[in-house]
Design goal:
Layout: E1 4-9, H1 16-31, E2 36-41, H2 47-54, E3 60-63, H3 80-85, E4 90-93, H4 96-101, H5 106-118, E5 122-127, H6 131-135, H7 139-154, E6 163-166, H8 180-197, H9 199-204, E7 206-210, H10 215-222, E8 229-232, H11 239-251
Parallel strand pairs: 1-2, 1-8, 2-3, 3-4, 4-5, 5-6, 6-7, 7-8
Helix pairs in contact: 1-2, 1-11, 5-7, 7-8, 10-11
Bound molecules: 1,3-dihydroxyacetonephosphate.
């Protein structure tokens, strides 16, 4: 039985006052929900503030990215060791915004996945196709390429304790959610590709969906056999929405 996983990716949003207001509302709501692993991923500069507000609760701290290099002369970088030292247990790698806007390649994402694991962080690997790729029938090819880059670099067993987030680019921040059936089909495909390398790992790896998940559609998405939770953007900035999404995941058996 895979424990459901819901992470809030705040992206480049928030300030000290709004973070405090959000978490003051959210923390007591999350305290009343069991059976789901919840993670908050704020911008780097707010990791300490968020930790001070969620510390001591079951909710974990994650970062949105990391540098592929270890500590040293890499101006602007934040290493896996620094994230660990700052109280993070998770880190998102390969988000489509990093791939599209910051030029991250499959090879770089695989490297980030590797260094995250080596530091004892749980990587949340994002994969997903653009609208053009979906319309040209290339969804599986693209997702498989992104997945294989990591499996080739780290081995399939590395996915056992990791999380894969299927985030179709066309569904991110657009209000256009994949239907539960569309998402399930890709999730089943991903699990099948992991199973081709290691069936035991495929049974354990959490595969979560991201892309316009809200309280109103979470339950239907999470009801699908291979959807083990969500990676939440916009709705993670609203306490009641994020808590309701966590509740929907917790209810899934
Ligand atoms: P939205 O939930 O805002 O569509 O964002 C999804 C996402 O990119 C989470 O990483």
């Amino acid at each position: 039985m895979r424990v459901k996983f819901v992470a809030g990716n705040w992206k480049m949003n928030g300030n000290r006052a709004s973070n405090e207001a959000l978490l003051t509302d959210l923390v007591p709501l999350l305290a009343g929900i069991s059976g789901v692993e919840s993670v908050i991923c704020p911008p780097f500069v707010y990791l300490q503030q968020v930790l001070s507000l969620i510390g001591g609760t079951k909710t974990a701290l994650g970062a949105q990215d990391l540098c592929q290099f270890g500590n040293g002369a890499y101006t602007g970088g934040v290493s896996a060791a620094m994230l660990k030292d700052s109280g993070c247990s998770h880190v998102i790698v390969g988000h489509s915004e990093r791939r599209a806007l910051f030029g991250e390649t499959d090879a770089l994402v695989a490297e980030k996945f590797a260094v995250a694991r080596e530091a004892g962080l749980v990587p949340v690997l994002c994969v997903g196709e653009t609208l053009a790729e979906r319309e040209s029938g290339a969804t599986e090819k693209v997702v498989d390429r992104q997945l294989q880059a990591v499996m080739q670099r780290c081995g399939a067993a590395a996915l056992r304790d990791a999380v894969v987030a299927y985030e179709p680019v066309w569904a991110i921040g657009t209000g256009k959610t994949a239907t539960p059936e569309q998402a399930q089909a890709v999730h089943a495909f991903i699990r099948g590709r992991v199973a081709a390398a290691d069936a035991a790992v495929a049974a354990e790896v959490r595969i979560v969906y991201g892309g316009s998940v809200k309280a109103a559609n979470a339950e239907q998405l999470f009801a699908m056999a291979d959807i083990d939770g969500g990676l939440i953007g916009g709705a993670a900035l609203v306490a009641g929405e994020f808590a309701a999404i966590c509740r929907a995941a917790a209810q899934k058996h």
